[in-house]
Amino acid sequence: MSENDHPEDGSSPELRDAQGRFRPGVSGCPGGRSRTEVEVRELAQANCPNAIARLVHLMENSKNERVVLAACEALLNRGCGTPRQSIDFGVGQPAPLAVGPISDEDAERIYFEMIRGSAS
Predict the structure, then answer these.
(1) Is the pLDDT assigned to residue 93 strictly greater than 70?
(2) d(C-alpha 59, C-alpha 65), whole Å
(3) What whole-number distance in Å separates Cα of residue 37 and Cα of residue 95?
(4) Max CA distance (Å), the chain
(5) Where are the domains of the chain?
(6) Which of 15, 33, 34, 42 is at a distance of 20 to 30 A from 67, taking alpha carbons?
(7) Considering only CA atoms, which of 76, 46, 70, 45 is closest in space to residue 58?
(8) Of the candidates 105, 85, 107, 109, which has an alpha carbon nearest to the alpha carbon of residue 97?
(9) How far apart are CA 73 and CA 55, in angstroms?
(10) Mean pLDDT within 79-87
(11) What letters, b where the CB count within 10 A reaches 16 and e where it falls short, cover 60-91?
């Protein structure tokens, strides 16, 4: 890149080094985040309690099992975090857990065991 060339993002060349990277102490976004982005985040956070309440309502009252499952997953992901992916290197690791369809009775038993476990 010659000194007269402008990078594709339109920034002036003196802000960039020879490889096109920003020089130390120079920001690619000197104005910071837009106020609209901040307002949207604040609005979303203000509505989190309502969204959680709606997920709980759907989980407890929906007749559609897919809706119930989606609500459960959303609540678990927000309350417990998304499950970590483990990597089996095959050395001293237990065999992977086989996951498949389970009966409604098993699902209900597991659910209540989880609830009792979290209450203690």
Answers:
(1) no
(2) 9
(3) 45
(4) 72
(5) 10-42, 47-80
(6) 42
(7) 70
(8) 85
(9) 10
(10) 77
(11) eeeeeeeeeeebbebeeeeeeeeeeeeeeeee
